[in-house]
Design a protein that fits this description.
By secondary structure, this protein is an alpha+beta fold. It has helices spanning 2-10, 15-22, 26-39, 55-66, 70-85, 127-135, 156-169, 211-231; strands spanning 42-44, 51-53, 88-94, 99-105, 120-121, 172-175, 182-190, 196-205. The chain has 2 domains: 2-66, Arc Repressor Mutant, subunit A (Orthogonal Bundle), CATH 1.10.10.10; 70-231, GAF domain (Beta-Lactamase), CATH 3.30.450. It has a 6-stranded antiparallel β-sheet, sandwiched between helices. Strands 1-2 form a two-stranded antiparallel ribbon. Strand 1 (42-44) and strand 2 form a beta hairpin. The chain is elongated, with a radius of gyration of 23 Å.
C-alpha cells in the first residue's frame, strides 16, 4: 500500500526513487514492485525503467465509486446539520435548468418550510440554484428573469456578479429571493472527479434564520459539505 500511495502521489517513479521516498532498501521495493506488476496494480515502462499505477487500480476505484449513492452518504450529515442548527437541511443535484431536491431532513421546529422531493430550486432565485450556476458549468439564464419576490435578482448583470461572488467565497445565500419569509445558504459537494456532485443547503424562516443565524451556520455547512465530498472520493 505504501508503494501504491507513493506512485499515486509521484506519478512515474524508479525503484531507487521509490526506495528513498519510502525509506526502504531498494531490494525490498523491487520485490514489492514485481508482485504489484504481476497483479496489474502497477505497470512497468521498459524504456524508462519507471513504474506507474496500473489500469487495474482504475477498475477497482470505479467499483467503489459506483456503489456510492450521494443520498446515502449525505444523509447522516443532513441529520447532523439539523441537530446543530435546528433548521431544515436539504440535498440537491444539478438539473438541466435548476437544481432538484433529492433528499431533506426537516427541522424539529413547529414553524418550518415544507420541502418536497423533486422540487426545483430556481437557478437565479435560490441558494442551491446559484451554487449550480457557479460550479456546474451551466450557462447563466437569459433575461428577463422572473421575480418571485421583491428580493429576487432579475438583472442578468446582477446575477453574473452574484455568481462571481459565490465562486469566490465557495457558497451561496438567498434571503427571501424564492419565497417571502424564507432564507437559505448552500454549498457544493464535489465528486471524485472534482465535478459538482450535489448541493447541500440549510433553510429556515426569516424570523428565526436571519443574517446572524445564517452567518453562524455557514461554517458548519461548509464542514459537512467537505466531509460528504471526501466520502465520495474527492481529493482537495
Amino acid at each position: 500500500m505504501a508503494v501504491l500511495d507513493a506512485l499515486a502521489d509521484g506519478g512515474e517513479l524508479g525503484t531507487n526513487e521509490l526506495a528513498r521516498r519510502l525509506a526502504l532498501p531498494p531490494s525490498t521495493v523491487s520485490r514489492q514492485l514485481g508482485t504489484l506488476t504481476s497483479t496489474g496494480l502497477v505497470e512497468h515502462d521498459p524504456q524508462t525503467g519507471r513504474y506507474r499505477l496500473g489500469i487495474r487500480v482504475v477498475r477497482l476505484a470505479n467499483a467503489v465509486l459506483a456503489r456510492l449513492d450521494v443520498r446515502q452518504v449525505a444523509r447522516p450529515h443532513l441529520e447532523e446539520l439539523v441537530r446543530l442548527t435546528g433548521e431544515t437541511a436539504t440535498l440537491h443535484v444539478p438539473g438541466d435548468e435548476d437544481a432538484v431536491t433529492v433528499d431533506f431532513v426537516p427541522s424539529a421546529h413547529f414553524v418550518q418550510h415544507v420541502t418536497q422531493l423533486g422540487r426545483p430550486s430556481i437557478a437565479h432565485a435560490s441558494s442551491a440554484g446559484k451554487v449550480m450556476l457557479a460550479f456546474a458549468g451551466r450557462a447563466l439564464p437569459r433575461g428577463p428573469l422572473r421575480a418571485y419576490t421583491p428580493h429576487t435578482i432579475t438583472g442578468v448583470r446582477a446575477l453574473a456578479a452574484e455568481i462571481d461572488r459565490v465562486r469566490g467565497r465557495g457558497y451561496a445565500e438567498a434571503f427571501e429571493e424564492r419565497e417571502p419569509g424564507l432564507n437559505a445558504v448552500a454549498a457544493p459537494i464535489w465528486s471524485s472527479t472534482r465535478a459538482l456532485a450535489a448541493i447541500v443547503a440549510l433553510q429556515g424562516p426569516t424570523a428565526r434564520f436571519g443574517r446572524a443565524q445564517v452567518d453562524a451556520a455557514t461554517p458548519r455547512l461548509l464542514r459537512r459539505a467537505r466531509a460528504i465530498s471526501l466520502a465520495l472520493g474527492w481529493s482537495p
